[in-house]
Amino acid sequence: MLITAENLRIRDLTGNKTCLAFLLAAVTLLPISALAKNIYKFQDENGIWHFTDQAPAEGVEFETVYMEREPEPRLKIRRDGRKESPVYLLFNDFWGPVEVELRFEEAVNVLSEPPLPARFIIPAQTEQTLVGIGALDQRQGFSYRLGMSSIPGRPMSKQIEGMVVLPPFAATEEYPVSQGFQGEKTHNSPDAIYAVDIAMPVGTAIHAVRNGTVMDVEEDFNRGGTNFEKFADKANHVRVLHDDGTMALYAHLDLASVNVRPGSRVRAGQRIARSGNTGFSSGPHLHFAIQQNTGMKLISVPFKFRTPEGTATIPEEQRFLKGASKDAAGKP
Asked: Is 281 domain-assigned?
C-alpha cells in the first residue's frame, strides 16, 4: 500500500480574541476511492448529441469517455460542539475496522480529552468521537495543529503464521510468478515484503483465496505505467478482511471489473474481479498480499499456496503457480 495525504482546513474561534486556522494533516496507509464515472456519448434519433453518466438504452450506439476526478477520503472527520470547545468525530467508511492515531503537531494553551497522542479503533461504517479540545487557560486564546495516522484492520499483537491459501485464480489455470517474497523491484517495504506478483493477461478471473468480508473496493482507474508519482495511487483493488483479522489485497485490477460489493461476504474460490494493468505497473499482473495491523504498522505476512495435490508451496519467482480446487484446499 502507498502513503497518501490530504488536508482539511477548519476555522476555530480561540477564546474571545482571535480567529486562527486549524490544519488537520491526515496521513494514511488506507486506500483512497476515486470519484470517477464513465461518460456515455451518443446521438438520438433527432441528431442531438448526449453526454451522460447513465448508460443509454439497449441497442443505442455510443462511445465511452473516461472521466477521473480527485480522490475522496474514506475517513471523514467532522467538527461538533461549541466554537470555544470543539469536538472532532471520525466516520470510517470502510467495511472493516481502522486504527487511528491522533496527536498534536503544534499546541499553544491547549487542553484535550483524551490527552494526545491517543489511539482509537473505529469499527466499520461507524462515526466515533475522537477528541474534545479547549483552552488550558480560559482567559487566553489557543491554537493547535493535529496530525492523524491510520491503518486498516484491528491491531494484533502477534504475527499470523502458517497460513495456507488457495491460489487467486481458477483451478484449471497456471501462471508464472514474476516477483516473489522480498522481491528487489518493489517488494521491499513492510507491507509488501511477503507480496507476490503473478503475471497474467488482462481480464483473467481473480478468485478469493479465503473466506472473508469485502472491506474496500476500487475499480475506477483505467491506466497504468512506470511513473511512480503519476500512477502510485491509481491501482484498482479489492481488500478482503478475513475472520482472523488478516486482510488479503488484490491489486492492479481492470477497470470496472469487480463483481463483489463492499460489505459482502465472499468464500474461498469465489470469483471477485478481473486482473488488469492499472496503477504503478510495468505490465499486466496481479499483486497479491496478506496483511495485518500489528499496532499502527501494516505488515505483510508469509503464506503458502495450496497445490492441486493438496500440499502447500511457497510462491517462488520465475516458477509457474498452478490453481487448486476448494477440495484440495482444506479450510483456507
From this structure: yes
Q: Which domain holds residue 134?
A: 4-32+73-152
* d(C-alpha 190, C-alpha 196), whole Å: 13
Establish if 170 belongs to a structural domain.
yes
Q: Which residue has the cell 491522533?
A: 102
> Nearest CA to 254 among 225, 278, 227, 234?
278
**pLDDT tens, 228-276?**
888 888 899 999 999 999 999 999 999 889 999 999 999 999 999 999 9
- In this structure, are 210 and 230 located in the same domain? yes
Residue 157 in domain: no
Strand partners, 321: 175
